[in-house]
Amino acid sequence: MAPARVLVVDDSPTMRGMITAVLNSDPEVNVIGQCGDALEARAKIKELNPDVLTLDIEMPNMSGLEFLEKIMTLRPMPVIMVSSLTQRGAEATIAALEIGAFDCVGKPQPGDIRPFQELVEKVKAAAKSGSSYQHMRRPAASAAPAANANAKVDYRVGRKVVAIGSSTGGVEALIEVLKNFPVNCPPTVITQHMPATFTKSFAERLNRLCAPQVHEATDGARLEIGRIYLAPGGDRHLTIANAHAPCCRLIDKPPVNGHRPSVDVLFDSVAELAGRNAVGVILTGMGRDGASGLLKMRHAGARTIGQNERTCVVYGMPRVAYELGGVETQLPLNGIGEEILKLTAARKEGSD
User: Is residue 51 flagged as an active site residue?
Assistant: First the structure.
């Protein structure tokens, strides 16, 4: 396979140099050009026809978000956002992922390229998705529903807990799955691979879009009906604990499958604590994190769902989970939310 051809767009010459050096260190990647702003990048895209774009959020003349919207409208292609690790940068990055950016990475300090090591793998995955990228993109989420948007849904909440894992493409996927959850949804715990400063902004965005309450998980938070808990990015894993009064636990443990928090760690704890009283869901993402944990959940009696290949931005995590036997049912993204509610609904009186 030919090297992934990358165009680097950033207003900082230092940052452009760092990104280029990291990407060119891998023989499967070739940086074919650098640009300092969106206007220059527009011309270079036409001239060079890159496979992947790395794009800064804050740039002169036209912001990265504005430029991304134009790209996704006029020439959909894989774009990886490079954002400052600030609250403002996090909010802009979440918006970019909703618009259709492939993934994001945080900017390191000058001279420290270690935070960019993951960029190489993301670029290679993005290049592989490029041929069908236009068909995979979906419209950004609509405005937040009213608090009573699901008032007419005949949903009787059961005693089950829902655990969801996702990575690349997960922002759009999670919004699609959760946007129609009723206000009395089952307790739901989520691990989404994302830099530490971004998960708070993402939880806030989900909270505005969804009828249930969405929070970044805190240690000891009780699992309650109508609440969704998102694993905070950083140095701890999200698990659930305490069979008599289930709650979130944030634990110190080395990265698993290269991730912290890890989907496998979450799923393992759900398998152990909830067993058959759980539903596990694995969505789009690179690698294999969550695959073995989902298999453990299924062996423990949980119902399990995997996103199908056609609707995944990256059919990595769901593919491995399916091949291991952890996925009971594969579904397109737009059918997963409904299936979760069906599997967690309490039986009506008089039913067998």
Answer: no
